[in-house]
Amino acid sequence: MEKISILWALVRRDYALQYAGSFLGISWMFLQNLVLISLYALVFLVLNLKNPSTQEDFTAYLLTGLLYWIPIQELLVRGTGILTDNRSLLKRSSLGIDLFLWIPYVQFLIHSLVTSIPVFIYLAYSGKLNLSGILLGYLILVFSGLYLMLLLHYLSRLNILLKDISPLIRLVSQLIFWGIPVLYYPTGYLKEWNRLNPFTIPLDIFRTSVIPGYTPQFDWIQVLPFLFFFFLVYLLAKRKFQSVILDHL
Q1: pLDDT tens digits, residue range 83-102?
Q2: Fewer Cβ neighbours under 10 Å: the N or C end of the chain?
Q3: Closest alpha carbon to 155 in 141, 143, 172
Q4: C-alpha dihedral over 15, 76, 40, 125, to 10 degrees?
Q5: 1-26: b or e for each residue (b if 16 or more CB lie within 10 Å)?
Q6: Nearest-angstrom CA–CA distance, 25 and 5
Q7: Whether the Cβ atoms of residue 41 and residue 62 lie closer than 8 Å to each other
Q8: Cα end-to-end span (Å), the chain
Q9: What gap in Å lies between CA 2 and CA 47, rounded to an integer?
Q10: Residue 92: exposed, middle, or buried by beta-carbon count in 10 A (0-12, 13-18, 19+)?
């Protein structure tokens, strides 16, 4: 319980530092997410960029894809830089590196929950939400964050060694975004390319949970090689990087 209270204090401190001087404070982050989802929905739905399903089906498909991806992207970018941003505090405290790594994950849980509320309300009002799958859908988001955390143990440490790889990670996050079927249906060669993206299967499972009548597009067992690889990367970070990182702080 003591570590949880310390972690929550660190989360609040991180929010305060991120949004210090901002007129809307932390509300700006939630507003930004909703505006981003609304803009994508406006462009793709108004311009009628859908294939091969109906307008109604594509609305749920698009919104659930964005709801899944936006918090994951925030976790990827924020998690990579969290140790570097707290370098001075890490030097002065004995809290350990791992506790700081959970800061962006807790924020990810908060952002996912808050962002999902208006999206789920809209989908439920439109009759495009599996009400019994809401809890399962959020649990899939929770486990998707843990899945990414395996990789972030490595990337956050690498960020210290290489000074700052945040610009590269932002670029990579855009490539990942267009490499998963968030804004389009996976077909043909593009579907084969999607199979190489580690977040395609979790997104497919998420959609299956929350969209009524949704047919899975991929074989879910294909996520196992990615999970195994991420776990190996996690072990590498814990065993090989730990002492080196402490020297570079």
Answers
A1: 888 877 777 777 778 888 89
A2: N
A3: 172
A4: -70
A5: eeeeeebeebbeebbeeeeeeeeeeb
A6: 22
A7: yes
A8: 28
A9: 52
A10: exposed
The tokens for 77 are 């970018």
pLDDT tens digits along 236-247: 887 776 666 665
Mean pLDDT of 197-224: 93
Answer yes or no: pTM beyond 0.90. no
| Per-residue pLDDT, 58 | 80
d(CA 159, CA 97): 13
| CA 184 – CA 163 distance, rounded (Å) | 36
Query: Tokens 């009400």 correspond to what residue?
Result: 131
Which position has the higher pLDDT, 123 or 57? Answer: 123
| Residue range 132-179, pLDDT digits in tens | 889 999 999 999 999 999 999 999 988 888 878 888 999 999 999 999
